[in-house]
Records
---
Amino acid sequence: MTEVQIAVLTSQHRDCILKSYEEVYSSKEEVQAFYGRFLENGWALGSWKNGELVGILTWAPREAVTHGLAEIIDFWVKPGERRKGIGAKLLDTALNRMQQYYKRFGAALRKVMLFTGATERYRAARTLYEKRGFRVVVKIPRNALDNPDGEELLYVLRVRT
Ligand SMILES: CC(C)(COP(=O)(O)OP(=O)(O)OC[C@H]1O[C@@H](n2cnc3c(N)ncnc32)[C@H](O)[C@@H]1OP(=O)(O)O)[C@@H](O)C(=O)NCCC(=O)NCCS
């Protein structure tokens, strides 16, 4: 079985990121503008298989690190590579790295939040989040934000320190 490596994405991986998102965003500039800060700050993790980027997780601290709150923004595994443990590995590595990041600033990670869909499409993600201890704290009605396909859920993980 080919080994999957998880690594922090940096500015050197800009082209891979651009390629992964070329169909999602309207232009290269838009992708660069959005993902630049994750790459510059070490807030993006990638999973690699045979030199190919097969999964991504991006996160960011919410305001000052002293608040202890981080947000997971983007999380996906390439369809053909799902259900092989890659997503779980990405999530666990990210939670670990977040804790290290907060420690570096003399703070502690207390909570991790994320928004995800309530529809069938996001069942896999919800199952994984719930397995790791994330809980739904609020439901956001269809169309209240950018969610025309259905309700969104705000999940929060309380991190044990
Ligand atoms: C969510 C996602 C990243 C998970 O990646 P993955 O590599 O397939 O996940 P794993 O193989 O590590 O699975 C971890 C656990 O998640 C759950 N899970 C994964 N796929 C599932 C599915 N299709 N149905 C139900 N549970 C599922 C299982 O509990 C699984 O553990 P198990 O295999 O021991 O039963 C992937 O399904 C994906 O990219 N989904 C589309 C994008 C998305 O919804 N992103 C989240 C947006 S917030």
---
Amino acid sequence: MGAVKYRTANRSGIVIRRRVLPSGDIIVTLLTPQGKLKAIARGGVRGPLASRLNLFHHVGVQTYQTPQSDLATVRQAVLEGALPTLAEPERHPFAHLMAEFADALFQEGEFSEQAFDLFAAALRGVARQSDPEWVALVMSYKLLGLAGIVPQTARCARCGAPDPEYPDPVGGQMLCAACASLPVYPPQSLDFLRGVVRRTVRANMDAPVPLSERPALWRALERFVTVQVGGVHSWRQLVPSELEPAGAAG
Ligand SMILES: [Zn+2]
């Protein structure tokens, strides 16, 4: 055979998806400042790359790609950072949710340094803050804002009447009293939904909505993302259930 042309690349990013094939190869998706990158680590499960390419690890990878294959191959991986507390049961579901969310929201090759920075900050927050659920809610809305997919809060999603205050069970936006079928949002939830995208992360973090109001916010986010983005598979398991009494873990 003649000389095969390899394209090699060095990238640094966070593992947001990891799938082990029956062959033992691992397919990973990284979120990097240059966009999303999908690559295969051949024989990965048995190789030294396996433990480095774990979910939520920040890794530097060297990949190569032949003209015949559409998937880059990981040649080397170096661990650049890990957040071990993300393995804790009260944090892991939120980290997983953020990773699924980023995967659905951002396209391969789409350049977004800001998205990477925001996602990395979200993971750090989920790893370190005392209220990882609140971090995940705030950062999910901030990521939506960055992607330019923002729920409408100024007008009823059904009839267009101004200043809606009720949940929209179909589209995850907001409805006026005349169109509503669910109870009105409490004041703090209303304030959050109207301001979260515009406010800074810090301002949002400083004004957490009470635990009892969060299931409705998660439901709205889940509906909105399902309708507008799609492709987020694990919401059903990950979004906290309202049936779980607040404080039951204590
Ligand atoms: Zn209406």
